[in-house]
């Protein structure tokens, strides 16, 4: 349990807030908002927090509470980390080593030493995509020796004859395509025999 300044995701700061790190939920009491000069509007299962003409927060009622996210404003070390993260983003996800090099040359305002947290964009960029094995393309030499088939549906919109599905047959040799529309999936065998 301790006293600290509280900043919310909606750019509102509550000074001298009491927080308990082991409690699962952060609660903000309306009287604290009143004391800070904020005005609360409740109604129609919605909450709106304003200060003057500025809308600071809007939230829906969930169950019997109005939920919002809150962050504890920490000391200046976290501000430096935030600035390092901001410079990291501004400079197209530059490495920590690159940021420190620029910081030593005083090229980045208010940044002396950069320690970056894991960046989701960088982690995604470092992932490798496994490619499909490249097999030599071997086509059959006779017509209708090998036929590829697929069924598609159910479609969101019916066709002119009220079909919701279609089946395709592709000859491997000639790559000729046949398409049959179906009203129901059980018509596939009939269309295959017709093909």
Description of the molecule:
It is a single chain. The chain has 195 residues and is an alpha+beta fold. It has three domains: 2-73, no CATH class; 76-117; 147-194, no CATH class. 22% of the residues lie in helices and 30% in strands. It has five helices and ten strands, in the order ββαβββββαααβββα. It has helices at 30-35, 76-90, 96-104, 120-125, 188-194, and strands at residues 2-8, 13-19, 39-43, 46-51, 54-62, 65-66, 70-73, 147-152, 165-171, 177-182. The strands form three sheets. Strands 3-4-5-6 form a four-stranded antiparallel beta sheet. A hairpin with a 4-residue loop joins strand 1 (2-8) and strand 2 (13-19). The longest helix has 15 residues, at 76-90. It starts with a strand and ends with a helix. Mean pLDDT is 74; it is low at 1-12 and 71-80. GO terms for molecular function: nucleic acid binding. It comes from Mucuna pruriens (Velvet bean). It holds the Pfam family gag_pre-integrs. This is GAG-pre-integrase domain-containing protein. InterPro entries: GAG-pre-integrase_dom (IPR025724), Retrotran_Ty1/copia-like (IPR039537), RNaseH-like_sf (IPR012337), RNaseH_sf (IPR036397).
């Amino acid at each position: 349990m301790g006293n600290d300044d509280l900043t919310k995701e909606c750019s509102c700061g509550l000074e001298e807030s009491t927080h308990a790190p082991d409690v699962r939920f952060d609660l903000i009491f309306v009287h604290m908002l009143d004391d800070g000069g904020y005005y609360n509007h409740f109604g129609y299962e919605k909450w709106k927090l304003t200060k003057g003409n500025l809308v600071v927060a809007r939230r829906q009622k969930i169950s019997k509470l109005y939920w919002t996210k809150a962050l504890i404003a920490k000391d200046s070390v976290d501000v430096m980390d935030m600035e390092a993260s901001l410079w990291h983003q501004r400079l197209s996800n530059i490495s920590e080593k690159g940021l420190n090099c620029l910081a030593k040359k005083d090229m980045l305002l208010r940044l002396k030493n950069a320690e970056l947290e894991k960046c989701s964009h960088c982690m995604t960029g470092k992932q490798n995509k496994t490619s499909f094995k490249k097999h030599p393309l071997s086509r059959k030499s006779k017509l209708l020796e090998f036929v590829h088939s697929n069924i598609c549906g159910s479609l969101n919109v019916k066709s002119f004859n009220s079909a919701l599905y279609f089946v395709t047959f592709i000859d491997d040799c000639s790559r000729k395509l046949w398409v049959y529309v179906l009203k129901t999936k059980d018509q596939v065998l009939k269309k295959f025999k017709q093909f």
